[in-house]
UniProtKB/TrEMBL annotation, chain A:
Domain of life of the organism encoding this protein: Bacteria
Coiled-coil segments: none
UniProt keyword Ligase present: yes
A biological process term (GO) from this entry: protein lipoylation
Domain BPL/LPL catalytic: 46-241
Protein's UniProt keywords contain NADP: no
Pfam family for this entry, one: LplA-B_cat
Gene3D superfamilies tied to this protein: Bira Bifunctional Protein, Domain 2
Keywords of the record: Ligase
Molecular-function GO term, any one: transferase activity
Protein name, per record: Lipoate-protein ligase A
UniProtKB/TrEMBL annotation, chain B:
Organism the protein comes from: Melghirimyces thermohalophilus
Keywords noted in UniProt: Lipoyl
Entry keyword annotation includes Transferase: no
Gene: gcvH
Subunit field text: The glycine cleavage system is composed of four proteins: P, T, L and H.
Modified residues (N6-lipoyllysine): 64
Top-level taxon of origin: Bacteria
Name recorded for this polypeptide: Glycine cleavage system H protein
InterPro entries: 2-oxoA_DH_lipoyl-BS (IPR003016), Biotin_lipoyl (IPR000089), GCV_H (IPR002930), GCV_H/Fam206 (IPR033753), GCV_H_sub (IPR017453), Single_hybrid_motif (IPR011053)
């Protein structure tokens, strides 16, 4: 594990310039998801450098497009909205992830290289490195990558503490297949959701309700999932404050960027234009045609 | 690397098989599927959709990673491999046969000239 993380640190240093966005204090809403695409496009056009974005979404279930491709799934999304768990659609893969208060998202944006430089595994490791370092240095928690069968959005690059999933991850490669040469401009987006202090029972119930209605069930088991507050004593707000500070410190160390910024005006305008793409209704016409 | 000589190849790792003056069958290469890993979902256009050369026409998902696919030609989608809805692993197991993705009626057959033969594609991916 140490060797893997050291190689990931080298990948960070291979990039000349970084930008760090800290949006944790802003209002949350669907624009947060549209911003992912807007930032990615700006990175692809090289208008802004490679970017790490720290943010929080609104309370919601965030699904990949494949989970919203049937009329039944759309109905499930509408039902979930009525119980204060709106469903938003992300660009990357995987299955539903809970967002909202008690979670912190970290997104990694890289311009697509013109040669083979990174593969899917490299990108997941780069994404996980600042989180694993934060968990170690701020909370003395030993975290690692691994699968946790029965957890939400399971995959081999979950960040795991004590056998329980604490971070979910996924990716999209725009501009051609992942890990391969492509001569067109594009970007790589990898994002992670860290559970800091959510009510696990409530979150797992929401995930299970969505999949029960959408496809007859894809159970998530509560014992597979942990939050930072599961391991760390103290007021949950304080735990979240320390997590944020520790994450900014890890990110700063890896990127040499110690001053965070906000998205540019152009990125905000682009996000406004993309906002419909994160709503399930956007895919309704396609499903019914 | 399995690269049938009778096919043409795009820089974005699609293969193209000409099946008549204006008709082509399209999928992704053996090299691409191998690099991507186990494919769990394939998003494709619908029959009748118009594809534009060099713009995204679909995506594949592997390792919770979505990858865009680019149209190697412009034209109208005549057929879509709906088997991939239930069996996306066909792209891994049989990229040039059961894993085909779409059949397109080309609007500009001269776009085939932009594609590579097997030797040139092999050189590109070996660089």
């Amino acid at each position: 594990m140490d060797d893997i993380l050291k190689r990931s640190e080298v990948h960070y240093r291979e990039i000349d310039e970084w930008r760090v966005l800290d949006e944790l204090d802003g209002e949350t809403g669907p624009l947060d998801y549209a911003m992912e695409e807007a930032v990615g496009e700006a990175v692809a056009r090289r208008e802004v450098p490679a970017t790490l974005r720290i943010w929080q979404g609104p309370q919601a279930l965030v699904v990949a497009k494949k989970d919203i491709r049937t009329p039944r799934a759309l109905q499930a999304a509408q039902m979930m909205k009525q119980v204060d768990w709106p469903v938003y659609v992300r660009q990357s893969g995987g299955t539903a992830v809970p967002h909202g208060p008690g979670t912190i998202n970290l997104s990694l944006f890289l311009p697509r290289p013109r040669d083979i430089r990174w593969n899917i595994d490299d990108i997941y490791r780069m994404l996980g490195l600042p989180l694993i370092r934060m968990l170690d240095r701020t909370f003395d928690l030993s975290a690692y990558f691994g699968e946790v069968p029965g957890s939400f959005c399971d995959g081999r690059y979950n960040v795991v503490v004590g056998g329980k999933k604490i971070v979910g991850t996924s990716q999209i490669w725009k501009g051609g297949p992942a890990g391969l040469v492509s001569h067109r401009p594009g970007y790589i987006l990898a994002h992670a959701t860290l559970l800091t202090q959510v009510d696990r029972e409530r979150v797992v119930s929401a995930l299970n309700a969505f999949y029960e209605m959408a496809e007859g069930g894809r159970p998530v088991y509560i014992d597979t999932v942990a939050t930072l507050s599961s391991f760390v004593l103290g007021p949950s707000d304080e735990v979240e404050r320390r997590a944020r500070a520790g994450l900014l410190e890890s990110v700063g160390e890896l990127t040499s960027v110690h001053t965070t910024t906000q998205p540019t005006k152009q990125e905000r305008e682009a996000a406004e234009a993309y906002i419909d793409r994160c709503r399930p209704e956007h895919y309704e016409q396609r499903i019914q045609s | 690397m399995n690269l049938p000589k009778e096919l043409k190849y795009s820089e974005e790792h699609e293969w193209v098989k000409q099946e008549g003056d204006n008709k082509v069958r399209i999928g992704i290469t053996d090299f691409a599927q191998d690099e991507l890993g186990d494919i769990v979902f394939v998003e494709l256009p619908e029959e009748g959709d118009e594809l534009e050369y060099n713009t995204p026409f679909g995506s594949v998902e592997s390792v919770k990673t979505v990858s865009e696919l680019y149209a190697p030609v412009s034209g109208k989608v005549l057929e879509v491999n709906s088997e991939l809805d239930e069996s996306p692993e066909n792209v891994n197991d049989s990229p040039y046969e059961d894993g085909w993705m779409i059949v397109v009626e080309m609007s500009d057959p001269s776009q085939l000239d932009n594609l590579m033969d097997a030797d040139k594609y092999e050189s590109m991916v070996s660089e």
